[in-house]
Amino acid sequence: MSVFSRVFRASIRNERDLLRFVVSVTAICVVIALAADVANQLSFFIDWPTCFRSWAITTGLVLALAIPISRAIGKAHLELYRAKQIADALGRTDQLTGLANRRALMEAIAGETPETLALVIVDIDRFKRVNDSYGHLAGDEVIRSVAQAMAAELGELGLVARVGGEEFALLASASPAEVVERRLLAFRDRVAATPVLASGHAVRVTISAGLAVRRAGETFDQLYSAADRALYAAKATGRNRVLSADEAAALVGRQRAEAEETKPDRLPRSA
Question: Does domain 102-260 have CATH number 3.90.1720.10?
Answer without folding.
Answer: no
